[in-house]
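Question (not urgent): is this output format expected?
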Amino acid sequence: MGDQDQSLGRRRFLGYVLAASTLTVAAQLGEVAAPERAEAAIPSLPEPAEVYDLNDLLTDAALPTANLISIQLNTDGTASFALPRAEVGQGVTTSSAMLIAEELDLPLSQVQVTLADARPELVFNQLTGGSNTTISTYTPIRVAAAIARQRLLQAAAAQLGVPISTLTTSAGVVNSASGASIGYGALAVAAASQTTVQVSVGLKPAAQFSVIGTPQSRIDALDAVTGRKQFAMDLSVPGALPTMVCRPPTINGTVQSVQNLAAVQAMPGITDVVTVATGVAVRGQTFGQCIDAVRALQVTWGPGTVEGASDASVQQELLAAELPLVVPPLPLLTQAVDARFTFHFASNSALEPNCAIADVRPGRAEIWGALKAPIVAQETIGAALGLLPGAVTVHVTQGGGSFGRKLFHDAAIEAALISQAIGKPVKLMWHRTDDFRQGRSHPMATSRVRATYSLGNVVSFEQRHTSIGTDFGHGLGEIITSLAAKLPVGNLGFSEVMFELTQQTPYEFGVTTQLLNEVDHGFNTGSMRGIYSPNVRCAQELMVDQLAAAMGQDAYQFRRQFLKDDRARAVLDQVAQAGEWGRTMPAGTAQGIALHPEYHGFVAVLAEIDCTPATVGRQVPDAWTGPRVTKVVCAVDVGLAVNPRGLEAQMMGGIMDGIAVALTAGLHLENGMFQEGSWDNYFYTRQWNTPPELQIIVMPPTTGVPGGAGELAVAGAMAAVACAYGRATGTMPTTFPINFTAPLGFVPLPAEPPIPQSPTDGLSRAY
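Got this back:
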């Protein structure tokens, strides 16, 4: 860590002092060294994601416009920064503020981070995805802050008439050796420039860090817990009234006719009823009135895009599209383990329902929403409205979760088209049932894996992942790659690139191949947290357990022996030690261990599970219980954790996601419609399935620069839980979630009307 980080600190970086009334600065560029590889008896060739992964692509794409991202110093001594990324709960506003506070020697409380409107000139530099925000902005933000500090020192030296070398900075103040001091606010105007000036600057070495790498509470925490944080539905846009949509009973069905349009128009509070491509929109004085109107509508619907489809029919479609394996077992020379895994649809709903505000008037439009690809939203909304992109203003709001959902602007474009149709502003909110049935889902997939082994070594490891098409219509954050991803041929090519740039096998398993094939783009899908990784790596890690057993080795030691990277080995050792791997456990309970590499980071997870009849059969009202994960130990190495406390929170959330998709959280498809209609039906990890023991170990800095963290824990946790389940029951699971074939555990909501009546018995549901 030391050499890499010191070399980063010694280098000079180019940046700019921008022409402005108060000090405004911008900067760019940085680089990362490639990790060394371990030796093995039969080494595997480097996979694409080991050499150049999706995060590298996103970082390189962002560099050319990094100089357009600026920090402004204000006369009150605060610094303002408009982050060109979305804050959806992952804490990037806090980590960005920490970078500025560090290099500028400014208290964290005096750094104000807001979210930038859509800025098409940023091109690839305004996409929030792939755990890339901190990686791609780490050096540019630090450089800009360092330039600001340097400029303040120059202005102070001029005012005090002393050499700049005699000045220091701390807590937003420039101090001189004589004891004189000047606050940053008093220097903000003097440090400004009337013309844009190019400058060079050095960065703090890691040894001098006082903010980066220290655990910090979120800068938005107080607002979040006191209800002052502003999400899209909290905004007061003049004239924007509640709006909802009556949606079809099958995925992507279409409106053929409305029998009672006038009667619904006359309902209390309803101002407008209009047909749009996605259904029938109603606008009213309250959301309650909108719900009543949606339920009252009598609509004749046309067929959807997956009419009549069911889980069984989709599975057959996937099996038919599976690419062949090519390495057969060779009798007398090698033996093989071979399995096929099925991963069912999973909901991509966030806690905040899909929503947006739109005010479309002749010649212009204004949109508000939690958008992770706002440039694509601006450009596609403009095209849909018949406006130039410059006539569309897109404001990025704080978001209540995303997990990939907010890469798509479904609600924003729908709100814009409704507003245009009625000529009035709208505050559109999807009902929770809309989100589950017509929203985005993680696609159903199968994964076929075969490994051959001989004489204590793995000779080959093949994986064929077959998936319902993943929609990458957001592209890399701008319109060209967005359109390319939507083309019939381009979409498959885009998916394959994404697969190859994200998936890797962390073990030296001889001839290793991973291939993707995708079919059927009639579903509304998206990149749920980790894109392909949770399914792909879960299948791999289960097969690693099978290999270890077949070769007579301990599952942990087997992994350790074949790992490519020392950083991976370190996190694996850490969880094995902290989690007491191999300890004696009662019958029906067991440990599982797994590792996952992603975006220059590594995570290892040890999980303990209770599959005893008493636990599996316990009763909880309105819930599916089943096995319980009783303990999780997670060790994570992201190179440099900018905010270890934020990293811990990310790991906790990812672990809960992993438990959910392993055990309980899946969507059941029947006759072209998902049966789940709310969180009541969709069994995400609940309190009674949350491990009572949870330990997160953040490894000391290893590379001096941050790696990706937002998605890292999901795949590791899912795989560890699946492996624990296999050891506890004696049967390797091959269908996920594991409870999928059990009775539903709920009575499906009707498809017509498309949303249920608002509950009036809230107290009876509290337990």
